Amino acid sequence: MMDEDSTVHGILTGDFPDGYPNTDHVATVDTAMAAPPPSPLAPVDLTDPAQVTGVMEIAARIGEILIFSGSSNSDARAQVYLAAASYGLHYCHVDIVMNTVTIHTNIGTGAKRQPLTVVRSARKWTINFTKLSAVDRLIRSIHTGFTPPSVAEQALDDIEAMKSPRTIFTELLGWATMGGAFSVMLGGNVFVAMMSFFVAFAIIGVIIAMEMMRIPPFYHNIVGGFMAVVPAAVVYNIASSLGLAFSPSQVIGMGIIVLVAGLTLVQSIIDGITRAPVTSTARFFEALLSTAAIVGGVGLGIQFSDWIGYPLPPLASMSAPVYYEVPLLVLAGGIGSAALAYACHAAWKEVLISGATAAAGMLFYYFVVIPFGAGVVVASGISAIVVGLAGGLLARRFHIPPLITMVVGYTPMLPGLTLYRGMYASLNEQFITGMANLVTALAIAGALAAGVLLGERGARRLRRPKHFRPYTAFKRIGRYSVNQAKDLAAKAQKIPRVPLAPLAPRANRPELPPIQGPATAPEDTSAVYADASPTSQWEVQTNDRVFDETWPPRTTFPAQSWPDEEAPTVYTSPGTEEFIAQHAAADEAKAAEEEQGEATSDEEMR
């Protein structure tokens, strides 16, 4: 058994020593939704309010971390209940509304009935995949019965105090790499990619500084939208004066994707699909408010650029990519998604798997959906199904939370460029075109949410098929002879059948234990033991090792019936000490009656 320090270290790092119970390739949320947890190895005292409240606090703290890591309402609720039920608290009610976790239960019965309620509120919305993976391992450890409540509390304290594995500079490099890769995916060249790299670095750097000053996120998006437009407009005018080709729309679209990547728009739609309307409405309103802030920032940047004399060019029509450009676009989407996972504090294994998931979705988008003439909304939805399916299978294979691959996988398909086109058209007196683009962007977000959720649910129900080997049994039989099989069958331990009633039929009685040593019986012993009682007869036969046709080894069970008294309730085998002790009183009574009868007959004869 592992000690507490080894258990906490394994939960935080994923490096469990030998002896940790092996788990199948299933996600934690699959375990929570598929079956109830096993009986706890060391359940808490469910009549003690302090212990029950401690278990509820552990479950609520787990739900808090899941919520501000981006988990959907239904998944977080299922995992919170799994943590509580694994300690024996099956009869509890879990409710999650927006960022508040409420757990209620009752202990005791009758007049001693006592209600208990625990409420936790998530402080802020921050995507931190390191804490998400650690709490996922904690839930698995609790479910397997390997982590008592005291160790779980210590692990939660360490998870909440866990420092980021990335420095601020490396985190900014991850966001900048994401911006440069996504600008190439949108059709930019090397110059556009370099410009996008520095713009993304500056946007996230300013946002981090504003977070340290505790400025509300609404103003983060306004400043981010403004910073995505002004540098692109300035560089475009300078490049045009020098005769260089530069498209500012890719830079602005990249900036919008960087800002939208951390929003809750897709998660809010997922909550609505999974029947959490209150949470979905709250998150959707928050996402709309943040999107409105981005729109305001972009519009402010466009007007400021016109005011300082660096106007943006009119929007050009978007053409489909040429076939030889598709591999580069797929590679750019995968690299950008991997960089996003890295910037969100994911481990290297999670970074690689997330990048592969996004690349699979982009590959399907360009090689399968677009060539058949599907629209951008339909193509995004179908590709999101592939992202959810591939990400779910890879996440279960490598034991990482499926939320990581799901959130990162659909990021390259976010409608950043469509949002910019809608904003630009609306600000330049093209209201119908602008509204059409904005509605298209909202439809793409809905298609992404529906597709990725459907694919992830499909991955939950897929299992590795068993291999069909029809000749395996014949090969196994040929490995040993028939005599060896008989010897193995003879050596196998057999469980004797216990009769179901005191007067069981002869076919259902247990067989007597074998008698050790040789047994030589006389030719005729029926007359010798004809007058003996069943118990004394068995004693004589056992001592003399004599059996005949009158008293064979398999006798009726029990040896005699009790018509005038209640049958014994304890089953015993003939010949054992329990059997002799149980029937001794009956034999003594019968012997006393016989002696009394003989004495009476002698007196009558006299």
UniProtKB/TrEMBL annotation:
Residues 500-606 are annotated as: Disordered. One of its GO terms (molecular function) is transmembrane transporter activity. Belongs to the ThrE exporter (TC 2.A.79) family. Residues 335-455 form the Threonine/Serine exporter ThrE domain. It comes from the Bacteria. Pfam families: ThrE (PF06738), ThrE_2 (PF12821). Residues 594-606 have a biased composition (Acidic residues). It is found in: Cell membrane. GO terms for biological process: succinate transport. GO terms for cellular component: plasma membrane. Residues 533-544 have a biased composition (Polar residues). This is Threonine/serine exporter family protein. It is a multi-pass membrane protein. Its main location: membrane. Keywords: Cell membrane, Membrane, Transmembrane, Transmembrane helix.
